[in-house]
Amino acid sequence: MKKVTGIITWIFIILLSIITVFPFIYMVLGGLMSYAETTSIPPTIIPHHFHFENYVQVFHQAPFLKYFWNTLLTSSIDTVCVLITSLFAAFALTSLDFKGKKAIKILMISLLMVPSEAIIFTNYNTIAKWGLLNTYVGLFLPFTTSVFYIYYLNSYFQGIPRSIYQAAKISGANNWQYVWKILVPMSKPALTTVGLLSFIAGWNSFLWPLLVTNNDNMRLLNNGLANFASDGGAQTQLQLAAATLTVIPILIIYFIFRKQIIQGVTRDGLKG
Amino acid sequence: MKNKRRKNQWSAWWFLGPALLGIILFSVFPILRALVMSFQSGSLISMHWTGLSNYKYVIQDPYFAKALQNTALYAFTVVPIGMVISIAIAWNLFNRIKHSKFFEALFFMPYVTSTIAIGIVFRYIFNGQYGLLNYILRFFHLGTPNWLDNPSMNMITVIIFGVWLSLAFNIVILMSALRGIDPQHYTIAKMYGASDSEMFFRITLPQLVPTLAFLLTVNLINAFKVYTSIYALFNGQPGIAGSAMTAVYYIFNKFQVVGTPGVAMAATVLLFLVILVVSFLQNKLLNKVGRR
């Protein structure tokens, strides 16, 4: 009896992991098929012959290199800015006493409940007014701060004994030195998580860049990809190759840092 | 001492400054601005007051009703189905599988990858003629619906994709909650000869209630904001003939395509209220269940 349930469990888990992972595998394989193979009946699973030239054609048809560069640039700037602003703010909220601290904390917690879709359109308005449509600054500026990551780091910093801060002050360190020489080295895991999650969110962002860019040269990967899929006609194999290009960098990062990413999400799994 | 405190005050505002500036400009101001705009009409450059007319328009607009209806349908199917499947996976992984970390990493993949890219793959799999899904269905002599081109199938397709997308986050959160349950509970229960299902319903499930409540809230809020996955499945259209129109899609259309930001913001405020009411009711309901 125990053996039977064991086997059923394994079948269940394997079946569902196939359903989860298969689309990714199929995407990579489909990107290497010929057009005839992608539309054949019965469907082709493994291409007869790997058509790497699909990728050449994708780069030829749309400026994917430019999309890559745009995405890398904006997600990196977002990540660095978010790390710095959140680190400072979370430090102030944890270690320093000042008037209005409570009010700021309440403000942040209530902002956590507002869905980003509710403010994204008025942010578009601001960016348009400042003449920043179709610029890098317009793409990253609204995401240089994040209430969520401040909240996240704040809860992490609260786990660090206050006596460490006091000891640093007594030994003559100022706040600036404390942050960079003690707090940052001590909270590397939390900062890594914030950096990774922010970078992934930036890489996968879709609605915001769709709003603030309409110039092909300024598009980010996901918008370029969506556009490629609708304009490029029914060239399924090219669409799948382009999708693979978009997903692979993040999957590589994910498999290197999966422990930090999963831990980060479960520690305070809100995001979005 | 007093002097030191004052010094700290200045220092605190310096450290908070950059974040606060960003938050005020890009979180607080836009909320207030959205509220103001919902009472105004005209284009973005020249807006003027119109009182409640935007709200009247949105409430009477059959497309908005349809969008809300679709959004609610999506939320109330994807969330429970996704939760049940995730619980089944997490419990089995935790309880019976040795390499649970490996499988956990696999199940989490959809969470970190782009919905647009995966949507392209799903569009391919769902294709009515040469799609893999219909091939499998035909193989088992089941019906082969036209997932993408038949308007009455569109929401079902979106829901299937939505369930697939929702598993990743749920499983990872549930796994960490399951690992947090004191193993002594199980040891004792086993000593008294409890069966697997008894342990699940008597020990695991009650201990998971806070996690489930949290997941339910997050899932519901996310479900009410569904947008990108539909864009990906239908190539930038809200389904065939608008059959998969959802609330955020409606807002986007009114804002960007039609160019009536006032109407879009009124719809945004209404959607926000719906989300607030739903999460409030759900919390109340869970509190009642939890107290029992």
Provide a quick synopsis of the model.
The complex is a heterodimer of chains A (272) and B (292). Chain A is mainly α.
Give me the side-by-side strand order of the main sheet of chain B. Answer: 1-2
* CATH topology annotation of chain B: MetI-like fold
Number of discrete helical segments of chain B: 13
Mean pLDDT of chain B: 87
Principal-axes geometry of chain B comes out as globular
Unreliable spans of chain A are none
CATH superfamily of the domain at 62-231 in chain A: MetI-like
Helix content of chain A: over 70%
Element-by-element helix/strand order of chain B: HEEHHHHHHHHHHHH
Tell me roughly what share of residues is in helical segments of chain B.
Answer: over 70%
The first-to-last residue Cα distance of chain A is 44 Å
Largest sheet of chain B: 2 strands, antiparallel
Q: What structural category arises from helix and sheet content of chain B? A: mainly alpha
Explained architecture:
The complex is a heterodimer of chains A (272) and B (292). With 272 residues, chain A is mainly alpha-helical. Chain A contains 14 helices and no strands. The radius of gyration of chain A is 23 Å and the shape is globular. The mean pLDDT of chain A is 87. Chain B is mostly helical. Chain B has one domain: MetI-like fold, CATH 1.10.3720. Chain B has 13 helices and two strands; from the N terminus they run αββαααααααααααα. Chain B has a two-stranded antiparallel sheet. In chain B, α3 packs antiparallel against α10 and α10 packs antiparallel against α13. The interface between A and B is large, with 92 and 94 residues.
